[in-house]
């Protein structure tokens, strides 16, 4: 009984931090104990004179860690969209434990701040249209970001082929002008360049056929393994 009484603490001071925005220092039995965000302060009704036991403190600390991880994740998403796998990795690198990370991911997903299907579509459209990359390279990037293979497949199936060809054509026109030599050499070098950008053999063949104003015996068809070592 005496041990249980010793585990009860009284909040003797709630002090707003001068530098920490929306953060408060909590003093128990006249001694500093921990600091919390304003949301946690309100949730647990941490006011002067209230009593807390060890279980209360554990719940408060857990909620504080969850809130910190959640706010960190929100800031990351605010800078640019993230996949679930990316966000998990960043939170892990910041020292958060798996249960906290899973809680944050589930909460963000429930709020639709985190959606791997939408992320895959947005990433694919951006890379195809703005950065002029081919689907092979975009597929590799999505896989590196931990996107589920079915979502990657779906994103690839929904690529607008006209957009992809238009991007490849613009790159090819620039490369063609910058490349010296006979038509065959220019085609070979331009094709290799496009393949490195992730375009498929079918796209490269189509672009080169449109690029060459005078068809010749040097025309050739590009396959995805044409430039493999």
Automatic annotation (TrEMBL):
Q: Which residues form the RecX third three-helical domain?
A: 162-208
Cellular compartments annotated: Cytoplasm
Domain spans labelled RecX second three-helical: 115-156
Annotated signal sequence range? none
InterPro entries xref list: RecX_HTH_1st, RecX_HTH_2nd, RecX_HTH_3rd, Regulatory_RecX, WH-like_DNA-bd_sf
Q: Does the keyword Nuclease apply?
A: no
Task: Report the transmembrane regions from the record.
Answer: none
Keywords of the record, alphabetical order, are: Cytoplasm
Q: Which residues form the RecX first three-helical domain?
A: 69-108
Q: Which PANTHER family match?
A: REGULATORY PROTEIN RECX FAMILY PROTEIN
Q: Which family does it belong to?
A: Belongs to the RecX family.
Q: What does this protein do?
A: Modulates RecA activity.
Q: What is this protein called?
A: Regulatory protein RecX
This chain's source organism reads Paenibacillus anseongense
